[in-house]
Amino acid sequence: MSVLEIEREGGVMVLRINRPDRMGALNTELRLALADAWCEFRDSKDLEVAIYTGTGRAFCAGEDMKESLERGSAGSSALAQGKENPYDLRTLEKPVIAAVNGFAMGGGFMQVERADLRVAVRGAVFESSEAKRWLLGGYDHGVKGNLPHTVATELAFAFRFTAERLHQVGFLNRVVEPEALMPTAHEMAAHLLTLPPASRVNTTVLMRAMRGSVSEELEDLAARLKEHGAKEDLMESRKAFAEKRPPRWKGWNNPEDRYRTPKLKSR
Predict the structure, then answer these.
(1) Minimal CA–CA distance to 88: which of 134, 146, 45, 26?
(2) Residue 266 included in any domain
(3) pTM attached to this predicted model
(4) Confidence check: pLDDT of 80 > 70
(5) In contact, 142 and 97? CB cutoff 8 Å
(6) Per 3-state DSSP, what percentage of the chain is helix, strand, and coil (rounded to 5)?
(7) Strand 12-17 vs strand 49-53: parallel, antiparallel, or unpaired?
């Protein structure tokens, strides 16, 4: 069974994550398959719009923590395997529609976030999980999504959101019944294909360029904050998840570091 199912028809490529037993978790095999598929989509002269979806009750649960524990290190990337993924790098010049069939957590949330248009089933659950798994929460998602600061803060602290709530705050384009998910995504793709090719490409590129981004000064602070804390807690979060127990946090290797939190250099 392939971890990624692909359909190609009428200028549309459908990429369907197919790991329902693991809630679409991003293991190395899937990451490499996605990298190849997105390169094919980028390079194809026939495929102009992509629909990105999942199988079962989840779109994508993010990092495959079972694999991370077996490997002994957090996270995974096809780039580390020498594979380029133009979707993750945001270098595609063709529109992508995320059709979210269920849970979109952590890295799965980020996969949805990178899409140009987003439709989800009612009751789908979303979570930016960085605050649970790393030493810094998902500080940039609200900026990219142009969300109100309080909503962005809630997202950064790994609170869960329903599809209905994210539609209300403008993160999702459509919320539909499960049976309408793929028909709606295909309707959106069909509309895009009616546009002049140059208009479709140029508008995709410009709308992506208009997305919010974090300033260099704040990215520098984020880089320093990612080092502020005991790195052992990264794997402890994954062990606790796998063992279905509360995590036993260390916090800081030196307790005094708790009071040495990095700050903006300009303040």
Answers:
(1) 26
(2) no
(3) 0.95
(4) no
(5) no
(6) 45, 15, 40
(7) parallel
